[in-house]
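REQUEST FORM: STRUCTURE PREDICTION
Request ID: SP-0412
Submitted by: Lab K.M.
Chain count: 1
Length (residues): 124
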Amino acid sequence: MRALPVTPALPPVTPALPPPGPAPSQAGRIATGAGHACFVVPPGVIGCVGAGLNGELGTGTIGYSVSPTPVSGISTATAVAAGEHHTCALLSGGTVSCWGNGGSGQLGNGGFASSLTPTPVIGV
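STATUS: Completed
RESULT:
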């Protein structure tokens, strides 16, 4: 049998990112769904990218967006949350609006219809 040559050890890899620090103060201001992502941009506008085939981008249309697109009528958002095909925003006055697929009542608007633009959640 022939002996295999010994490979020299590789030098340690220097991490490209700094070590983790404290949690960012803007936590909860970015949300992802099945194929879309939304984020709050100061002073309270929400931008979304990705697949909006159920209205989850909140632009009033169905389609895709590869660049951030503002959600219609939202200017006082403090947080954003996303489900598989819907998105919700907490607004500065304490109200909540949701948009996208509402087939299971997840938009909180009292029905099962989807919405291409933000609709207020009833009772919040």
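NOTES: The chain has one domain: 30-120.
Reviewed by: T.R.
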